[in-house]
Amino acid sequence: MHDTDAISAPALASKDDAGFRHTPALSGRAAALTSRFEAIPFSPWHRRARIVMGSATFLDAFDALSLAFVLPILIRLWGMTPAQVGMLIAASYVGQLVGALAFSRLAETFGRVHMAATATVLMSVMSLACALTGNFWMLFTCRLIQGVGVGGEMPVAATYISELLRAKGRGRNFMLYEMIFPIGLMMTGQVGTILVPLLGWKSLFLLGGIPGLVVAYLLYRLPESPRWLISKGRYDEAEKIIADAETSAAHKGFQPVPVSEPVAAQPEPRQGSAPSANEPNPWLEVIGSVFRGRTLIAWSLWASAFFVANSLNNWMPTLYHTIYELDLHTALRAASMTNVAQVAILLVCAFCIDRIGRRAWAVASFLIGAVLFLGLYAGGAGSVWSLVVLATLAYGVVGSINAVLYLYTPEIYPTRMRAVGTGLATSWLRIASAVGPTIVGFMVGAQGVQGVFLMFAVVAAIGAVAATQMIETGGRQLEDIAP
């Protein structure tokens, strides 16, 4: 039995005879503002927020993957061993683990926008610092610190975008935002293929750092999430932002929907009041009795999907160049095709996810990925071009799950703990991504690439089993999914 039943009964929301929605868990004004905001269709107001936050996510992807396209040069330049390569890849993910936990918690206190902007500043400054390094340990340190910013931006950004979208079309609109991450990965590959051989490895870090400072400035100017403001009792600020969004939607003929007061409203908190001493600790609430089931499933999904995807994505340029002896340009071009495949599959996903559901997509994608990896283990890795085709398809399919998880995870937690719940889930991404490349590094040297693909197939199969226990969130208002 899925844990939907444990939370959806009794029903969280109801309608009166006039069809107005009531959300008893919210106070009178909070429920009214939430209903107003939920009624607003996607508009230029939403589009601007998606573009600006998406620009930060694009740079997050660029900075996260840039190392993969300079490693083939650094291995020869600095005489790095496979173990050192794994350590360098893992350093970023260790930093991302710290960033995901720290920035998601800060986002519950100081807001989504300011924390996303601060994380973007950190990752951009450290990208510039990476360009100034001259040895393994200097780059290791800079990538570790940069990872804090990279890890902090994504869960906060996903939380922010999720909170801006209403139930109708949330999957499609969120996935169109989330596509910017694999587009960033794809652009890293395409730009890295040209820029690194032409201008050297430092140019890629410079390109990742300078635009980030401009994007951070734009982030600071975005409106805060009305749902977060409402959860903090900052109703006047929330109402002003909601009014701006309603005005933006007016060109579509949208008229604000009248909302009745809740039947049994709770006392309104003081505007801008600090959290009550009796307010649950979000760290503990995530794994408490109410949310434990969905949390453990989410963590399993994040660990499985990203263990496979990020290990594959970081190692493919090096495997093509050193194991299969492709020239540098061809190796980088072949590796970049994995992200092209992911973007194409995600475009299909964006327009299907609300119809077929999060759970069905995740289960099917894990199973297809497992079959493709078994094909590589059984002999597909014997030829470099069969490897390119099968590995590219496998990454595209499993990589689509990564984007679905950024949609799904903020949906299963309430506003008061949404960023923390998402940040904790993405921390398993970081752990898996730190451990995965290191294991691959040792396995390539000890057992060859076939053993690596068998391992990926097993992990994907485990992910498919976990995905069968996902709750379905499509078409449901965020306040109805979690109390």
Automatic annotation (TrEMBL):
Q: What is its main location?
A: membrane
Q: Name one GO cellular component term.
A: membrane
Which Pfam families is this protein grouped with?
Sugar_tr
In the bilayer, the protein is annotated as:
Multi-pass membrane protein
Instruction: Give yes or no: UniProt keyword Lipid biosynthesis.
Output: no
UniProt superkingdom: Bacteria
Q: Which UniProt keywords apply?
A: Membrane, Transmembrane, Transmembrane helix, Transport
The answer on whether this UniProt entry bears the keyword Transmembrane reads yes
Output the SUPFAM superfamilies linked to this UniProt entry.
Answer: MFS general substrate transporter (SSF103473)
Membrane-traversing stretches: 57-79, 85-103, 115-138, 174-198, 204-222, 296-312, 332-353, 360-378, 384-408, 428-446, 452-471
The record, for PANTHER family, names:
SYNAPTIC VESICLE GLYCOPROTEIN 2
Q: Which family does it belong to?
A: Belongs to the major facilitator superfamily. Sugar transporter (TC 2.A.1.1) family.
Q: What is this protein called?
A: Transmembrane secretion effector family protein
Give the source species.
Brucella lupini
